[in-house]
């Protein structure tokens, strides 16, 4: 199975590149701010399956840059999905917990109504719609709180801040599942194979367990790093950001398990290895 992926430097793309049969397109090969170039790149690179692992992921910056974020996160995936639909190639796309409004405490099910709170979430929601509207075989995998040794993520931010501070304030009331990028790549490859073999796709959730808060993830990170950092747990109201984030990011991952046999990864297992790679 030949797999073409958009993204090369990102967290998920870096992990996808470890799998055999994967060809990656970096920004210089296909810039998502040019959707037609992305469509052309699919035509120019024969493959069995296409996975989009590139996105505009700067959540706060997107608030003042929504036009570009929309092209990258919605128009480009839409163009990719239409080429794939016409060519009969399955298309897999990654989306986010930030499409939900974060109300309640119940894990979000795949068919629950979405209502993004910020620009990033709005553009990702529009991307989901564009992929579905293309009408081809597809899978949309919503995940959350991705971490890995590569690119930018909260675990790396915490380790960087702890170089210069031994006391940090971190929000306690946003709840979700931290997800290792390597587990997402593994899930996508299983799904790609299944869709290639004729299985029906749709929209799915995939997040690490157990649920925690950002403060909980910060504490676990410092424990794994052996760093003595005092984490003060604060409410979201005490940490104002340009983009509002959902309080409830819990994702119900049951349909992914039922249809593909893929179970939520235990993020605590991978954290120690990832932290030591970051520190090395
Ligand atoms: N990070 C997270 O916590 C979460 C991510 N997701 C989703 O998972 C997917 C993968 O995210 P993740 O691996 O964390 O991404 P990263 O933030 O690690 O990397 C983003 C990737 O997208 C590429 N990219 C951004 N803009 C463009 C562009 N205009 N043209 C070409 N490439 C571009 C970047 O390339 P370059 O290096 O050139 O900038 C980089 O490879 C995305 O769809 C994201 O929305 C979902 C939930 C949580
Ligand atoms: C750095 C820092 C952040 N925070 C808060 C801010 C915010 O509410 C929360 C998370 O911070 P970040 O900005 O690192 O995380 P953020 O960029 O919002 O992470 C999101 O990225 C996108 C791409 C996704 O799709 C989401 O699933 C999610 O992973 O932690 C603190 O409380 N203390 C701190 O010292
Ligand atoms: Mg961020």
TrEMBL record:
The keyword Oxidoreductase applies. Pathway: Carbohydrate biosynthesis; dTDP-L-rhamnose biosynthesis. InterPro entries: dTDP_dehydrorham_reduct, NAD(P)-bd_dom_sf, RmlD-like-bd. It holds the Pfam family RmlD_sub_bind. The gene is rfbD. Its EC number is 1.1.1.133. This is dTDP-4-dehydrorhamnose reductase. Belongs to the dTDP-4-dehydrorhamnose reductase family. It catalyses: dTDP-beta-L-rhamnose + NADP(+) = dTDP-4-dehydro-beta-L-rhamnose + NADPH + H(+). The keyword Methyltransferase does not apply. Residues 1-278 form the RmlD-like substrate binding domain. GO terms for molecular function: dTDP-4-dehydrorhamnose reductase activity. It comes from the Bacteria. Binds 1 Mg(2+) ion per monomer. Catalyzes the reduction of dTDP-6-deoxy-L-lyxo-4-hexulose to yield dTDP-L-rhamnose. It comes from Sulfitobacter albidus. Keywords: NADP, Oxidoreductase. Its cofactor is Mg(2+).
């Amino acid at each position: 199975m030949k797999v073409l992926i958009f993204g090369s430097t990102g967290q998920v793309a870096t992990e996808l590149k470890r799998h055999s049969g994967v060809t990656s397109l970096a920004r210089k090969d296909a810039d998502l701010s040019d959707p037609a170039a992305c469509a052309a790149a699919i035509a120019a690179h024969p493959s069995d399956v296409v996975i989009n692992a590139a996105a505009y992921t700067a959540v706060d910056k997107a608030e003042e840059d929504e036009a570009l974020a929309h092209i990258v996160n919605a128009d480009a995936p839409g163009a990719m999905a239409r080429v794939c639909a016409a060519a009969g190639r399955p298309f897999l796309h990654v989306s986010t917990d930030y499409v939900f409004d974060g109300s309640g405490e119940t894990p979000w099910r795949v068919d629950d109504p979405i209502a993004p709170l910020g620009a990033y979430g709005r553009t990702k929601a529009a991307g989901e719609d564009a992929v579905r509207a293309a009408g081809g075989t597809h899978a949309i995998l919503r995940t959350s709180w991705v971490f890995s040794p590569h690119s930018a993520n909260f675990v790396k931010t915490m380790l960087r801040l702890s170089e210069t501070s031994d006391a940090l304030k971190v929000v306690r009331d946003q709840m979700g599942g931290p997800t290792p990028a390597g587990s997402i790549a593994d899930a996508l490859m299983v799904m790609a194979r299944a869709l290639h073999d004729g299985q029906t796709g749709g929209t799915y959730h995939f997040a690490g367990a157990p649920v925690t808060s950002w403060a909980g993830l910060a504490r676990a990170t410092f424990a794994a790093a052996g760093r003595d950092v005092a984490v003060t747990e604060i409410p979201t109201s005490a940490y104002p950001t340009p983009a509002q984030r959902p309080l409830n990011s819990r994702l119900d991952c049951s349909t992914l398990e039922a249809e593909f046999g893929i179970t939520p990864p235990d993020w605590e297992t991978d954290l120690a290895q990832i932290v030591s790679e970051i520190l090395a």
